[in-house]
Amino acid sequence: MTVREMQDEIIRLKKENDICILAHTYQRHDVLEVADFVGDSFALSQKAAKAPHSTVLMCGVRFMAETVKILSPDKKVLLSDGNAGCPMAEQMDKQTLIRLKKQNPDYTVVAYINTTSELKTECDVCVTSSSAVKIIKQLPAKNILFIPDPNLGQYVRKQCPDKNFLFVEGGCPTHYSMTAEEVKQALSLHPNALLLVHPECSPEVTELAHFAGSTSEIMDYAKNSNAKEFIIGTENSITEHLSFELPQKRFYPLSKNCICHNMQLTTLATVYSCVNGTGGEEIELDELTMQGAKRCIDKMLRLG
Ligand code: 13P
Ligand code: SF4
User: Fold this and answer.
1) 88 lines ligand 2 (CB under 6 A)
2) How many CB atoms lie within 10 A of CB 152?
């Protein structure tokens, strides 16, 4: 089967089987082409609550599919590849968080959405990279325990100077390995380029950036900017999507190694096997976890 034939078959099968395909922006181009909706984590969770279909296929990583299940408990929710986890989301376990809460009783727990549902049951509110500042500013609490990404946390702290933040060790292995040295090299090779990065990058990288934002915000910034060249400090799929969408502009990856192998587990063939009923993993969560995690996801959607 050619790529085009497989895409046509996926489109036919998703209609026949009443499946909505949601795809994170880090997915491959040929997958994005068959999706009903493409977006960053926040936009995907908004869509998840509204899709009228009986089945939702999430092309992304596990915490994204869990969010869909929590917001649409009566739907069948499939994760495109059962091995696609987010290493950052799995860095902290529930017992560690319970201990941290005991040690810091006057702190409100804000969880990046890149966390397991089990962990979310112990949190006060969720945020995504595009909604974190807006949501935290609205919280009456002054003391914020921000888990699990200290890099996103420090980016938020700069914009919420009246709050006290507490962070834990961790972060995204795809993003935190990029260095200020790589920024210097990239900028000396492309002196007219603007540096656009995800706030999961380390503070030394984010501080040198012309813009920091979520995956969709980075893409929107490049589309709306008058600049002609950009260095992209996030998963390299974004560099590829932008090069494809804006052929008159030039996009360079900040690092050739900025690849999220979990996100890239999903291929067009994976999507095909999901819509023909032979692939994917159906997400199942127990009632208590769903209720506990829903509280902080709902709060995110309300405030974000
Ligand atoms: P966005 O919310 O920006 O899409 O980020 C999700 C993510 O996992 C980035 O690594
Ligand atoms: Fe998780 Fe990082 Fe991959 Fe995003 S890029 S899904 S934070 S491992």
Assistant:
1) yes
2) 27
The contacts of residue 297 (CB under 8 Å, 6+ apart) are 45, 67, 70, 71, 113, 120, 126
Q: What is the pLDDT of residues 10-45, one digit of tens each?
A: 999 999 999 999 999 999 999 999 999 999 988 888
Closest ligand, as measured to the CA of 131 = 1
> Nearest C-alpha to atom 6 of ligand 2 is from which residue?
86
Query: pTM to 2 decimals?
Result: 0.95
Q: What is the whole-number distance in angstroms between the Cα of residue 16 and the centre of ligand 1?
A: 31
Cα 223 from Cα 215, distance rounded (Å): 13
For the chain, domains (ranges, CATH) are 3-86+263-284 (3.40.50.10800), 94-173+290-303 (3.40.50.10800), 178-253 (3.40.50.10800)
